[in-house]
């Protein structure tokens, strides 16, 4: 197993088109001219991922006031994302990357430590893309709790 290739500040964000929680196609290019925060999480309706998603939900007004949209991406199928969004009244799109192509391209899938073991999996990550499609902020191996507050400090 090898370390995933990570995005760095100044890199061009890799393009993607994925299916959202409503079955619509969503592309990164849909957000051209705006800032978009793309966050990657392992699995819908698990404790850490729920905490993180609800933090984003509760901070959406603040993020939007800074001109930032949010997209959540996980390898969950669309029906699981729809249930997760409904269960927690999430106010941003959740995108399905079942084959993990986007997760891998963005450095959010690969080798990680889980309870002291090295495993392949989703690396909880957050990447802020500016209006021109360039990486403005890239955080990997983030902790779910308090993560959104740290992001807000970085972008405001």
Automatic annotation (TrEMBL):
Pfam families, alphabetized: AhpC-TSA (PF00578)
Gene3D superfamilies the UniProt entry points to: Glutaredoxin
Domain Thioredoxin span(s) in chain numbering: 7-156
One GO cellular component term noted in the UniProt record for this chain: cytoplasm
GO molecular function, one term: thioredoxin peroxidase activity
Source taxon at top rank: Bacteria
Enzyme class: oxidoreductase
EC id: 1.11.1.24
Biological processes, Gene Ontology terms: cell redox homeostasis; cellular response to oxidative stress
Record field: catalytic activity: a hydroperoxide + [thioredoxin]-dithiol = an alcohol + [thioredoxin]-disulfide + H2O
SUPFAM superfamilies with a match to the protein in the record: Thioredoxin-like
PANTHER family: AHPC_TSA FAMILY PROTEIN (PTHR42801:SF4), THIOREDOXIN-DEPENDENT PEROXIDE REDUCTASE (PTHR42801)
Function: Thiol-specific peroxidase that catalyzes the reduction of hydrogen peroxide and organic hydroperoxides to water and alcohols, respectively. Plays a role in cell protection against oxidative stress by detoxifying peroxides and as sensor of hydrogen peroxide-mediated signaling events.
Entry similarity comment: Belongs to the peroxiredoxin family. BCP/PrxQ subfamily.
Subunit text: Monomer.
Protein name, as recorded: thioredoxin-dependent peroxiredoxin
